[in-house]
Specification:
The protein contains 13 helices and 13 strands. It is of the alpha/beta class. It folds into 2 domains: about 100 residues, Outer Surface Protein A, domain 3; about 200 residues, TIM Barrel (Alpha-Beta Barrel). The strands form 3 sheets. An 8-stranded mixed β-sheet has the order 11-10-9-8-7-6-12-13, covered by helices on one side. A 3-stranded antiparallel β-sheet has the order 2-3-4. A hairpin with a 3-residue loop joins β2 and β3. About 40% of the residues are buried. It binds S-adenosylmethionine (SAM) and iron/sulfur cluster (SF4). The site of iron/sulfur cluster has 12 residues, from loops.
């Protein structure tokens, strides 16, 4: 078995970060985040070395680690990579050493994933909206978003989540998605309100990783009491229309005391549409601050049971980190400004490539022996939050 030659499949790309490592496949529209140590294995999977040779090479470089542990870790990693479609194993050497992007700048954090608030405008007024979305907010024209996406792409951005406000209120949303899906792994969050047959069919013609629809209950009254009259019907219709044309769907449920007991039903509902279920516990941010405390759940047992943590959160836990910006995941405001996450206010003004440089400079600690350790970047973010340099809308969802 160890005589096979593992090699990354052509469209797999690896972007090393200072503390972790993104592996993505544009063709399959999937990505995973690995811990930094996985790079030791990845860099050997170029096709010219058999599994046994890789084990021996690593063992020679890490004499303190037993051969058994190395073999075990490598085989586990290979199995996972094969199952996800990133890796193949061949009987003979098969050279492919072109999977690494930005290896020369490995010590700098790349902005790999961004959640973009494409607009702050929204037709709804959900009781809990952390974004406090509304009307009359100026929007960036399409060409400026494209410029920003391009400059981020050149620096490493590969995964884009489009959110808001309501993305489908942005006048050029379909053009923007069309452009973005050519280069990135793209998902879009929506209330579903504006999804009709025509939009569903246009989305199905694109390569969108997932469309996330907010649905808080199987019972219209519960959903509508939080998100507005008639919104349940619109959300369910959107799910049906998208399902009909085979667009991958994620249902996002904001968990309150009003729907806590039906989380299991939501899971079955999602299954009916082949959809993922993402459970987001109500955060006391933005409009939610005006809600009665009775809405906020005190136990999250069922949330943990029915919703698995995102890869980003899993890796943050594993690395004992507290801030997503430290692994290259950032928020981008409706003005095009970069921020550590969407729960913080804008930090770097002006939207252009220069912003990215400023951001990376501030999140680049490789030259500092104090800041180079795993938790320092989040410490830095926390101190910036504390001294008011970065303004948080409320308590940071990580630890601040
Ligand atoms: C801000 S909305 C933007 C996209 C779109 N308008 C929608 O409602 O899906 C993104 C997601 O955040 C969720 N959300 C809003 N405020 C929240 C809060 N205070 N706590 C937890 N989730 C919240 C919404 O339910 C929605 O799934
Ligand atoms: S949660 Fe989404 S739909 Fe509701 S007000 Fe906020 S942006 Fe609009």
């Amino acid at each position: 078995m160890n005589t096979l030659y593992p090699v990354f499949i052509n469209d797999t790309k690896i972007i090393p970060q200072p503390n972790c490592c993104f592996v993505y496949s544009k063709r399959q529209q999937i990505f995973d985040i690995f811990n930094f140590e996985s790079l030791i294995f990845f860099s050997e999977m170029h096709g010219a070395a058999s599994t046994q040779r890789i084990i021996d090479n690593i063992a020679a470089n890490y004499p303190a680690v037993s051969l058994e542990v190395i073999e075990n870790d490598l085989l586990k990693l290979q199995k996972f990579l094969k199952e996800r479609g990133y890796l193949a194993t061949y009987l003979n050497p098969f050279d492919n050493s072109t999977v690494f992007e930005y290896t020369d700048r490995m010590r700098e954090i790349k902005i790999v994933q961004a959640e973009i608030e494409i607009t702050k405008n929204c037709n709804l007024r959900c009781k809990y909206c952390f974004n406090e979305s509304g009307n009359g907010n100026p929007e960036l024209p399409l060409n400026q978003w494209i410029e920003l996406l391009d400059s981020l792409y050149d620096r490493g951005l590969r995964i884009v989540k489009i959110s808001g406000g309501e993305p489908f209120l942005y006048p050029s949303i379909l053009e923007l998605l069309e452009y973005a899906q050519e280069k990135f792994i793209v998902s879009v969050n929506t209330s579903g309100y504006f999804i009709d047959e025509e939009i569903a069919s246009k989305l199905s013609a694109m390569s969108i990783q997932i469309v996330q629809i907010s649905l808080d209950s199987k019972i219209a009254k519960i959903h509508d009491s939080l998100r507005g009259k008639g919104t349940w019907e619109k959300a369910v219709r959107a799910i049906e229309l998208l399902h009909r044309v085979n667009v991958p769907i994620r249902i996002s449920t904001t968990v309150t005391t009003h729907n806590y007991d039906e989380i299991g039903d939501m899971k079955s509902f999602a299954n009916e549409y082949g959809a993922e279920l993402s459970l987001e516990v109500l955060n006391n941010v933005g409009n939610a601050r005006k809600m009665e405390s009775a809405y906020f759940v005190t136990t999250t047992e069922k949330v943990n049971q029915y919703s698995s943590k995102s890869t980003a959160h899993k890796i943050l836990d594993e690395l004992e980190m507290t801030c997503q910006s430290q692994i290259g995941i950032v928020g981008i405001s409706h003005k095009g400004n970069i921020k550590p996450c969407n729960l913080t206010e804008e930090f770097f003004a002006a939207q252009n490539a220069d912003v990215v440089v400023k951001f990376e400079k501030n999140w680049h600690y490789a030259n500092s022996p104090v800041l180079a350790n795993a938790n320092s970047a989040s410490d830095k973010v926390i101190s910036l939050l504390k001294d008011g340099t970065i303004k948080s809308k409320d308590k940071c969802i990580f630890e601040y």
